[in-house]
Fold this sequence. Notes:
This protein is of the alpha/beta class. The protein has eight helices and eleven strands. The strands form three sheets. A seven-stranded mixed β-sheet has the order 3-2-1-4-5-11-10, sandwiched between helices. β4 (114-120), α5 (129-139) and β5 form a beta-alpha-beta unit.
Amino acid sequence: MAPVADAEGPTWSDIAAWYDALLSGGSGPHETAIECLGRLLPDLDGAAVLDVACGQGLATRALAAGGASAVVGTDLSEAMIDIARRHGGTAGGPDISYVVDDAQTLAEFDDGAFDGATCQLGLMDIPDLHAALRAVHRVLRPGGWFAFVIGHPCFLVPDAARTDGADGRPAVVITDYFTEGFWRSSNPNGVRRAGNHHRTLSTYLNCLIQAGFDIDEVSEPRASGQLAAQQPLYEQVPIFLGCRATRRA
Ligand SMILES: C[S@@+](CC[C@H](N)C(=O)[O-])C[C@H]1O[C@@H](n2cnc3c(N)ncnc32)[C@H](O)[C@@H]1O
């Protein structure tokens, strides 16, 4: 399997068990992310949905519980897919299939195979954003939808520094927003030690449009309960950006 990140630090497979334990214990950021994704989704009844860069299947299981009739999760990391399979499906929901594949090609999937696709906290981890969005476009039927959540590209910037605002509320200082590229968090207990591709907001939105999508809705969620308690900064600035778009014919 090709490495997900460069050779200098851990890959997603290296930290898959740690990531699963983090989510299984209850993670404030993931609670906020999945609520954001859920609010963006259309009616799932009867829909065939692909969850791209599904990791241990947090969003994949939510899709199955939400009424989709067929749910497939895919991720480049075999370790993540093994863990996702072990979590199984949801009571009363459809069976979930898991497939190891690269989001930049989605070569395992036929053209137009899905009514909808999701990608929760995955697009920042994928080196070639254009290729991934073209691949998602290809596997959707015309008129199909794509909903994603990413680390907010304006605030989760490599050099972002926490500070206190003039009124004492938590704030963040950004000085190098325009420099795009791969970076790793130096936090040994952070998710982004596996690496991240920083891109500007306009890069994300323009890639989406160029890949053949119309943007339907954009969301910047305020931190929900657990995250607000853990990191009050994210009550002041959004930690995530969510979007739903429709595949043009
Ligand atoms: C932050 S995790 C998100 C996982 C899951 N969607 C969630 O919400 O918990 C990022 C995931 O992207 C996957 N990933 C990175 N590059 C990928 C690629 N080129 N194709 C498919 N998955 C990839 C990683 O293996 C990892 O599981």
